[in-house]
Design goal:
- This protein has one domain: Cysteine proteinases (Cathepsin B, Chain A).
- It is of the alpha+beta class.
- It is 38% helix and 32% strand.
- The protein has a six-stranded antiparallel β-sheet with strand order 1-6-2-3-4-5.
Length: 136
Amino acid sequence: MTNKFCGPFVLSHLAEIPIKDACAILRDITGKKAVKGVFSKDLIHALEKYEITASPILEGPRTLFWFSELVRCSSETFLVNITNHYVVVSGRWIYDNRHPAGVWSERHPDRRRRVVAAWSVRKKNEFESDKKDIQS
C-alpha cells in the first residue's frame, strides 16, 4: 500500500510498520479522520510510541543536498523537514513517499529545497547498546 502523504510514509519507514498502521497511529494522535498533513510534534510523538527518539540537530536555511553531504558518512538516520515535506536521510540515500526505495542525494528532485529542521533518529535499544560498549 502506498500513501501520497509524507508523514505516514516517514513513520512507516522509521518504525518499520505498515503504512496502514502509521496512518492509524497518526489519526489517534491528531484526532483527525484524514492524515493529510502532520506537524513535527505529532510525528515525533508517534515515533516515541515505537520507542524511537528524535533529537533535534539542525534548524536553518541549508539545502537538502548540503545536509545529505554533511551526514553522508554517518551511520545515523535522520528525519528532515524540507519546506512542507518530510524525508528520511540515511547515508547518501533519501527516502520519501515518492521514492520509497530511496534515491541518491545527488539525484533527488527536492535536493535544492531548504531544510526547516532535522532530527537524529534512533531506537531506544541502540542507546543501551552504546552505553554497554562505552562501559566495557
